[in-house]
User: Fold this.
Amino acid sequence: MNVPDPGLTSSHVTRREAVAAETAKFVAALAGASLATPVPSCPGWTLLDVVRHTGSVQRRFSALLREGFQEPPRSREIGELRLPDHEDGYPEWLTASAAEADETFTAVDPDAPMWAWGADQHARFWVRRMLFETLVHRTDAETAVGIRPTVDQGLAADGVDEFLVNLPFAASFAPEVARLRGQDETLLFRCTDSEAGWLVRLRPDGFGVEPAHGDTTTAAASADAAVHAAAADLLLLVYGRLDRRSDAFTVYGDHDLLERWFAHSAF
Assistant:
C-alpha cells in the first residue's frame, strides 16, 4: 500500500519552516542574476520561469488549503497570483508567496480530510508537496547560477519518500507512469547516510512502494535492481536532476529494469 512512511515523516511544523527556509535560499540565489538565465535542469526554462512556477504553486496550493476541497477543483486556475509588473519584482514576489503559504499553514489543520491527487487524503499532503516543489526548484536555480546545491539529509529522505509514494497516482498528469508495470520485479532505493530505503514492486496492474529500513542487505540481495546513494543524491536522481551513471551512485542488478523505471517515472 502506498502511504507515507511514518518513520520518515517530518512534523507539520518542520515542513512549514522548511518551505520558508527553502524559499529564502531560492531568493538568495537570484541575487545579481539575470532572470533570463537558462536553467539546464528544466530544459527551455529560464530563472524567471522557475521563479514564477514555484511562487504560483505556493499561492495555488495555499488557496487549495484554505478552501479545503473535498473533490478535484474544476479549474487549475485557483487563487490570485498577483504577478509583479516588472521582472525585478519577482524575488520579492516569491518571498511574499512563501509568507502567504506560512500564514495558511498556521490557519489550517494538517490532519483535516481533504482531496489530494496523491496517497494522503489530508491537508498535510499539500504542505508536503509544496515543500518539495520549492526545494527541488531551489536546487534548479542554484545550479543555473553556478552554486552547488546542498540538501539536508532528513529533508532529502522525506522527499524521496514523498516522490515514491505519490508516483503511482501521478498518471493523470504524467502519463508515462502508467507504463511502470511488470511481473513482480523489484527495485531497491537505499540511502547510504541513514537507514532509509524503499522497495518498489512492479505488478501487472501498476506498482507499489514499501519501506525497506535498517539493514537492507537481504533486500538488496533479493531485489532485481538497486541504487544506493546519499539521500540528497537520491532525491535529485528521482527528480531527474542527476544521472544514475555518476559516481554518486552505486547501482546493482538489472540495468534494463532501471532504464525502464527512469524512462517512465518523470514527475
